[in-house]
Amino acid sequence: MEEAPTYAPSLPVPNVQEMVKMNPLEVPTKYVRNEEEMEKVNYMPQLSSEIPFIDFTLLSNGSIEELLKLEVACKDWGFFQIVNHGVQKELIQRMKDAVDEFFKLPIEEKETYAMLSNDIQGYGQAYVVSEEQTLDWGDALILFIYPDQYRNLRFWPKTPHGFKEIIEAYSSEMKRVGEELLSSLSIIMGLEKHALVGLHKEFIQALRVNYYPPCNTPEQVLGMSSHSDTGTITLLMQDDDVSGLEIRNKGNWVPINPILLDAIVVNIGDVIEILSNGKFKSVEHRAVTNKNKRRTSNASFLLPQDDVEVEPFHHMIDAQHPKMYQKVKFGDYLRHSLKRKMEGKTHTDVARIKEQVIEK
Ligand SMILES: O=C(O)CCC(=O)C(=O)O
Ligand SMILES: [Fe+2]
After folding, report:
1. Where is the Fe2OG dioxygenase domain (predicted)?
2. Ligand 1 contact, 209 CB (< 6 A)
3. 250-257 CB contacts, 8 Å cutoff, 24+ apart
4. CB distance 295 to ligand 1 below 6 Å
5. Considering only CA atoms, which residue is closest to atom 9 of ligand 1?
6. Residue 101 C-alpha to ligand 2 middle, in angstroms?
7. Which helix (H) or strand (E) covers residue 265, if one does?
8. Given the DSSP bridges, would you call strands 264-268 and 233-238 parallel, antiparallel or unpaired?
9. Are 328 and 353 in contact (CB under 8 A)?
10. Considering the entire predicted model, what is its pTM?
11. Distance in angstroms (rounded) separating the CA atoms of residues 266 and 217
12. Are 141 and 111 in contact (CB under 8 A)?
């Protein structure tokens, strides 16, 4: 059986949780963003309530109304929240509790799962490619979950007890929900229901658990730099009561607050943007931090295999919608993005035809 391929190296950087523990008031200059990057002038919290909520059960049953909502969400926001998804509340809570317990472990124990210098699985940070780059105020645990043979159990925490089984059960639910969403996405792209799942043959699913410690001056730092997700779709679970996720919409930053417990935040990745020839948007997003509260989130990424070729569907190209992207091999595309710092949508350049303007 084939093991997971290697993705990309990232430079070692300090553990942020530990740094804050030792010196809670200090914000080293390596983390301080310039004002332009923080862009608080374009902060539009009042738009937050317009980000669509979609009933997953109705959607899966083919409700035209929900399919239309999904289409609007993918075109106008690139993000939506799903409710009524059938993932047990108790399982979601067990996942959140286990994540909390893991990050509470002493640093020495967490570091037994530290990323190696050549790849992104394990505990640490990704996307750090130069000594000069401004660093994110957060730590992460990245694991490959599917296909099964991509799992490297060396990086799967043994504490808290049962974490492995919780991750497996939780991820299997994210896979179910994700694949079902792709059926609905196929329909709104004018394709046969199983087309997108078929195109991927077998998905890769990766889990990224994010931990953002509190920051004494949250207006100066970012928990996660602005980026768009490179894969097909992402399913994100946020903390129940701590905000931090912000998304781009018409040049503004709009927060997605956890107002409905257990809602899953879904976003369209670059693969869907390319396949749909730009009709459905892979939207830039970032995480901000809080002064007194730590925040966690966990993201399940559904990605194509390395050898899958991605290019716009013919039927989505016409005189009004000229071809925006050229064909890319997903493995090359992903590695290209992992070799850079996260910087909005700049990594999508390799796939874009000519110098098209990146919408913000
Ligand atoms: O913490 C968040 O809300 C965002 C996480 C995210 O964008 C990611 O892991 O790709
Ligand atoms: Fe993301």
Report:
1. 202-304
2. no
3. 250/360, 251/42, 251/360, 252/42, 252/43, 252/44, 252/47, 253/39, 253/42, 253/43, 253/44, 253/286, 254/44, 254/45, 254/47, 254/48, 254/51, 255/45, 255/48, 256/48, 256/51, 256/79, 256/81, 257/48
4. no
5. 299
6. 23
7. strand 264-268
8. antiparallel
9. no
10. 0.96
11. 29
12. no
Could you tell me the distance, in angstroms and rounded to a whole number, from the CA of residue 244 to the centre of ligand 2? 12
pLDDT in tens, 286-300: 999 999 999 999 999
Ligand 1 atom nearest 245 alpha carbon: 3
Query: 16-349 has which CATH code?
Result: 2.60.120.330
What residues in the chain have per-residue pLDDT under 70?
1, 39-41, 355-360
Which tokens is 19 given? Answer: 């740094």
- pLDDT tens track for 15-74: 999 999 999 999 999 999 988 778 666 899 999 999 999 999 999 999 999 999 999 999
Q: So what's the pLDDT on residue 71?
A: 98
Which residues neighbour 97 within 8 Å (Cβ) at sequence distance 6 or greater? none
Mutation to probe ligand 1, out of 99, 212, 224 (largest number of atoms < 8 A from CB): 224
Decide if the complex's ipTM is over 0.95: yes
